[in-house]
Design brief:
Elements: H1 9-41, H2 62-65, H3 72-90, H4 94-115, H5 126-143, H6 146-159, H7 175-191
Length: 201
């Protein structure tokens, strides 16, 4: 048996971050699918935990609403973008990522609660998808980090068309959740700003 040279600390750190980000996002998506299986198996008993606008008791449903969906097609539509955008955002550190997601969920949920159609019930991870899109789009410019700017530009090229989803529409899609989730992501980029790599953090 022979041994090669040990990996440099920076290389180990990058590898660890990638592994942690991948495990987190795969676990997150698995949880979304599991919750929808439970919802269907119980006759959609989880659907009421979505957000009904301007009902004070519904403020407590803002966090769970981001994890619930209305059917497997709804979950499927959010799975791939959530995996990709979440993985890219989580590479910057899990604690920062979780803080960013909290801001997105809170901003998106409150936006729906204040502006959603009366009597509607809103749920879905798309609020997080739009929030992470906004966060990745501006993070590099806010932090003044060239690599993150490049990531943001690539994200804009691949997913830029989702911005149509923030425009008011008459369908069953919550453009309010998309819009305020996006705003929450941009806000989080400023709230959790950090300096250039050569600056002390």
């Amino acid at each position: 048996m022979s041994y090669g040279p040990a990996a440099a600390p920076a290389e180990r750190s990058r590898g660890d971050r990638m592994k942690a980000a991948a495990v987190l996002m795969l676990g997150w998506v698995a949880l979304l699918w599991l919750l929808e299986v439970v919802d269907v198996a119980t006759g959609h008993a989880l659907d009421p935990y979505g957000i009904t606008p301007r009902e004070p008791a519904e403020l407590a449903d803002i966090p769970p609403a981001a994890f619930l969906h209305f059917g497997f097609g709804h979950v499927a539509a959010n799975t791939v973008p959530l995996l990709i955008l979440g993985f890219l955002a989580a590479l910057g550190g899990l604690r920062r990522f979780l803080a960013v997601v909290c801001v997105i969920v809170l901003a998106g949920g409150l936006g729906v609660w204040f502006t959603g159609p009366p009597g509607s019930v809103t749920a879905g991870a798309s609020v997080v998808v739009f929030g992470l899109f906004g966060y990745l789009l501006v993070r590099g410019f806010v932090d003044r980090r060239p690599l993150d700017i490049l990531v943001g530009l690539l994200v804009a090229m691949v997913y830029g068309s989702i911005l149509w989803g923030v425009l008011p529409s008459a369908g069953a899609v919550s453009w309010q959740g998309h819009l305020f989730g996006l705003i929450g992501g941009v806000l989080a980029a400023f709230l959790f700003r950090r300096g250039r790599p050569d600056e002390p953090v």
